Amino acid sequence: MSQFWSPAVRDLEPYVPGEQPRDTVIKLNTNENPYPPAPGVAKVLADYPIDHLRRYPDPSSLALREALAAHYGVHVNQVFVGNGSDEVLAFAFKAFFCREQPLAVPSISYSFYPVYCDFYGITPHKVPLTDSFEVDLDAFPTDNGGIVFANPNAPTGHAHSRAAIEALLDKHTSRVVLVDEAYIDFGGESAIPLIERYPNLLVTGTFSKSRSLAGLRIGFAIGPADLIDGLDRVKDSFNSYPLDSVAVAAGVASIKDDAYYRACCASVIATRERTTAALEACGIEVLPSSANFVFARPTTIEAGMLFDALRARGILVRYFNKPGLDQFLRISIGTDDEMDYLIDAVHAIVGEK
Amino acid sequence: MSQFWSPAVRDLEPYVPGEQPRDTVIKLNTNENPYPPAPGVAKVLADYPIDHLRRYPDPSSLALREALAAHYGVHVNQVFVGNGSDEVLAFAFKAFFCREQPLAVPSISYSFYPVYCDFYGITPHKVPLTDSFEVDLDAFPTDNGGIVFANPNAPTGHAHSRAAIEALLDKHTSRVVLVDEAYIDFGGESAIPLIERYPNLLVTGTFSKSRSLAGLRIGFAIGPADLIDGLDRVKDSFNSYPLDSVAVAAGVASIKDDAYYRACCASVIATRERTTAALEACGIEVLPSSANFVFARPTTIEAGMLFDALRARGILVRYFNKPGLDQFLRISIGTDDEMDYLIDAVHAIVGEK
Predict the structure, then answer these.
(1) How far apart are CA B34 and CA B50, in angstroms?
(2) What is the CATH number of domain B39-257?
(3) How large is the average pLDDT for residues B170-187?
(4) Mind listing the pLDDT tens digit of every residue in chain A (353 residues)?
(5) Nearest residue of B to residue A213 by CA position?
(6) Measured between alpha carbons, how far is residue B167 from residues B133, B171, B177, B245 in Å?
(7) What are the Aminotransferase class I/classII large domain coordinates in residue numbering (chains A, B) (predicted)?
(8) pLDDT at residue A198 in the model
(9) CA distance readout (Å), A210 to A271, B221, B272
(10) More confident position, B248 or A324
(11) Alpha-carbon distance A219 to nearest alpha carbon in chain B (angstroms)
(12) Cβ(B199)–Cβ(B225) below 8 Å
């Protein structure tokens, strides 16, 4: 707190990212992919023409947008890219949700959404999840300044079908509906094909999860050209070159290696299903997940105690000490070996009780 | 323009970055460094442990902040880093300048400042330059919501001494004074040593100019810990991980190679002085520059015509078609060969008239 800060900055409650420990532990706390990026990414870095770095990047990141357009079967002017999907979301909140009406958000979802609301002075209208911890698509109010939710949702893991999202879009036509698909590649149905028919649908995605590139900060949005134009206006009023040249080239290489990406996603899904069954066998309730994590509720031990006990064994998961979430642990899906180590530890801890 | 955009977004006038042409030309339009980044940067990319990219970066970019702290002789908690100095400036405007009082800015300076004002709804108070095109430090009003200017100024190139900035700080103590030192390494005196005595001084810098890393997007701010805390609050309310892991490692390598960096700056300065003399010999007025560009006013031909004629010969410089600037061309300093080519072309064009 300082006399020099802008008045509104004193009241911000910043987002708290998951810990990045420097000592070696089994790290299952920030939904990173356990597999390395596509081999083509290594080649991009190894062969990068260093002299090129003295030049500014292409401010429109055209090469990456073209690769994404081809991958998703959309036009390049329907694609926006930014410095991680966090930045894309931050731009989208400015571009579409700075209105007098409140922004409809699930009460439990990505915890950055209320932070963006704070940042821009947007009033959030929080819509409770259903009893089965699903985003309640029927409960979004008709009079809203926009709707945002993650699908699959975080940290719960549930995904709605494309048909369910289509039904939502049929009801809400006057403001932007933003579907944050950070985790879509682990079993969800993307809403991207709907952008042709719904002029108010914006879908965001990231290279941080399914493409194993959290370290390079690449996010994107896909939507009608009109909405992409709005994002461009905001970007060019904030930071014209958010993506560096190496990230753009690495992102293109990642997209080109479709087989590798699909194989990694399939491995994560298989490990998730196996982990779910094994945790349930330890008496842990696991919500159905379409993401690269599971949201798990221990029944014979407090979640906070299990978090501490796992940590003592060198396993880091995520515990949100907040009402509605504090019965659960969010556990990222690692390699099979990492998950075996986790399951053995859970067994031992629950057995020790 | 779209019904879905937030009302304020319709009125934004985004920044227009200098052109990044794809065909080969002599590119003297965006103040890029003509020399490649430090050799250590090449090694960082070639040897980068790719598997590391699946992990999120350290959100605090500690390694790079430590390197900058050592380089500038400050404490690590007096250093902030971001995705280019544009992002650092965007965060600073939010952190310090969102106030009812207008923000004092020179009428001619980095053209992104009024764009940030627009973005946040800050009223700019534009202070004219002196007759000799210098930032008029005595003319900033006492009642302001902050002061921001570039030193050396862009696009004019003039730099004030540290003593002059100290005198300014003695007069303005209640709001943040932001000195944007993007071009300081080409002959200016940095204000960084003053941060110990002035709790309201924030200095920003970039790796895009003197360190030849425009393509990697690395900017920084140095100031009292209190102000750095304010920037951190804003960052963590917008985008927690603005710098990617490769950029952090490359930035550290750049800082470590101090001799290379000094040699590149010295070469640019020598070429600038030679270029200035040669342009003056062609009848072009050149403002004294402490930056890696010169601001040059042709006397026997319209600036816009000279711009077009240079372009026709494959030489791209920057022409700002705005009142007060439209008599000038801003010419970045390239290699000696590039400047010889430019000077020959100017000779030929002015001679042809």
Answers:
(1) 29
(2) 3.40.640.10
(3) 97
(4) 788 898 888 888 888 887 777 666 899 999 999 999 999 999 999 999 999 999 999 999 999 999 999 999 999 999 999 999 999 999 999 999 999 999 999 999 999 999 999 999 999 999 999 999 999 999 999 999 999 999 999 999 999 999 999 999 999 999 999 999 999 999 999 999 999 999 999 999 999 999 999 999 999 999 999 999 999 999 999 999 999 999 999 999 999 999 999 999 999 999 999 999 999 999 999 999 999 999 999 999 999 999 999 999 999 999 998 888 999 999 999 999 999 999 999 999 997 54
(5) B54
(6) 19, 7, 12, 40
(7) 24-346
(8) 98
(9) 14, 34, 48
(10) B248
(11) 12
(12) no
User: Cβ contact (<8 Å) for B239 and A87?
Assistant: yes
Under an 8 A CB cutoff, do A115 and B2 touch?
no
A54 in B contact zone (CB under 8 Å)? yes
Q: Give yes or no for A74 touching B (CB within 8 A).
A: no
Nearest to A110 by CA among A140, A96, A90: A90
Pair of tokens at residue B131: 């007759």
Q: Do A5 and B233 touch (CB under 8 A)?
A: yes
Residues of chain A numbered 77-106 and touching chain B (CB < 8 Å): 83-84, 86-87, 90, 94-99
Strands of A49-200 (E only): list them: 79-82, 103-106, 124-127, 147-150, 177-180
> Is pLDDT larger for residue B223 or for residue B4?
B223
The beta-carbon neighbor of A52 closest among B17, B215, B240 is B215
**Per-residue confidence band for B352, with pLDDT thresholds at 50, 70 and 90:** low
Residues of B in contact with A20 (CB under 8 A): 55-59
Instruction: For chain B, say whether A7 makes contact (Cβ under 8 Å).
Output: yes
Domain ranges of chain B: 7-36+259-352, 39-257
The reply to whether residue B246 touches residue A216, judged by beta carbons under 8 angstroms, is: yes
Ranges assigned E (strand) in B117-197? 124-127, 147-150, 177-180
Mutate to test the interface with A, among B2, B22, B29 (most CBs of A within 10 A): B2
Q: What is the CATH number of domain B7-36+259-352?
A: 3.90.1150.10
Return all residues near A85 (Cβ < 8 A) that are at least 6 apart. A180, A182, A204, A205, A206, A208, A219, A220
Q: Which residues contact B340 (CB under 8 A, 6 or more apart)?
A: none
What is the C-alpha separation between A33 and A211, in angstroms, rounded? 8
For B244, nearest residue in chain A (alpha carbons): A216
